Each structure stands twice: as C-alpha cells, then as structure tokens.
Known about the structure:
By secondary structure, the chain is mainly α. The chain has helices spanning 4-24, 29-34, 36-54, 58-63, 69-82, 88-112.
Amino acid sequence: MINDSDAINVRHMLQAARTAHSMIKRETRKSLGQDIKLQLALAKAFEIIGEAASKVSSETQWSYSQMQWQTLIGLRNTLIHSYLDIDLDKLWEAANFDLPPLIAQLEEILTANPTQ
C-alpha cells in the first residue's frame, strides 16, 4: 500500500505521461524539430514526470523497483538544466518508446492501490 502523497504523485506522473503520449501520436520526428510549441510541451510533460517521481518516497520506489525512478528524475534534471539545448532525438525516442511502458507501470501501481 502506498501513502496518499505517493499516490498523488503517481497520478501526476500518469497524467503527464498520457498527455505527452497523446501529443505525439500524429506527429513525426521532423514535425517535432519544426514545432517549438510541441518541443516545449513535451519537455514540460517529462519535467512533470521527473519532478513527481522525485517526490515519491523511497519506500514506494523500493516497492516498485521495476520503475526506473532515477532515470525519470535524471531526465527531468537534464531537461531543466539544458534550457533550449534539448536533444530532440532523445526526447522523441523517450516519448515514443518509453512512455507506453511507463504508462502501463503507473497504471499497475494505481490499480494495486485502489483506495488511493
């Protein structure tokens, strides 16, 4: 059972991940390179995911060790500190290949903790 604060942060992560995934569904890598609004929105979604992940307790992180907590937090830190020098290829790959399994993992956590 996760605590209420962790459940809130996991829900924030899930909402941001779903939003980011929906933003790129009909996009291409080329369109990402040409659309500064899409770049910033996608980067912001990953920042939210990483920030919320950083607020999840170590107990919950340990209980759900299959999640790449430190990777998510590290991506957030990279995005925050790189300003407009974002590696768009990495951002694109993360959005397309990392978000679907992340969404599934977050949904599993919330399903396992239904009263939260």
